[in-house]
User: Fold Glucose-6-phosphate isomerase from Triparma retinervis.
Amino acid sequence: NVFGFWDWVGGRYSVCSAVGVVPLSLQYGFPVMEAFLKGANNVDEHFFNAPLRSNIPVILGLLGVWNSTFMGYSTRCLLPYSQALKRLPAHIQQVDMESNGKSVSMDGSPLGFHAGEFNFGEPGTNGQHSFYQLLHQGRPAPADFIGFCKSQAPVTMEGERVNNHDELMANFFAQPDALAYGKTEKDCEAEGIPPALIPHKVFPGNRPSSSLLLTSLTAFSIGQLLSVYEHRTSVQGFIWGINSFDQWGVELGKALAGQVRNQIVESRGKGAQVAGFNQSTTMMLESYLKQSAA
Assistant:
């Protein structure tokens, strides 16, 4: 009654193993998941066989190392222009941050640089009205734009010049352009912008981004996307000389959680005083025990 999977399958790569494919097949049907697996395999073969100059995961991995290690950007944002991919940034957070959040090399020696990146993101139009302001005129962060040539739900309304997907994709093309080239004072002057507003209307530009344009959002293309980012993560780990396939970082917190659990049991069952924690944790734990018992 238990579906086994190989002992070498890491947690963030388990979606293609029995632990991921079986429940997803029960939900969506195996033909859908078969297409997903074929998409992942398609990029796997591309990664293994394509020349380095045209190898998509290699290129993205090299750009990631350049932006992170050499240019000093600690953050990367993922911007899918599809509401159906609203959880993609969270998935890639786990793929990338759990894999490459390391401070020592494979031989245990300290790294002389920061490895890994903070990942965040939202579907395109949501992000445009929340954090794109920071990307354009505040602190820059490399951005991955993901768009599709065909819509899953095209809507054309009478009197509108373009359909809903064309409107969405107009922003997909415009935002990276604005990040790259910005807007100068001369541009503002040529538009007749009042002098007092010009400093607020200038965009510095020269802000890095990458764009991935796929034909349509299907199970096959989702498999491709996940494989691209998994291999990108591995490429960066190879270059940094770290082990992307362990995750010791969560162990300390788990061990301390065990101590807290024991303290809760002792305090509630025997009235034991909270002890053995730093002052902040002691005060919060005492408050928690008091208020949760009320």
User: Anything to note?
Assistant: Residues 219-240 form the longest helix (22 residues).
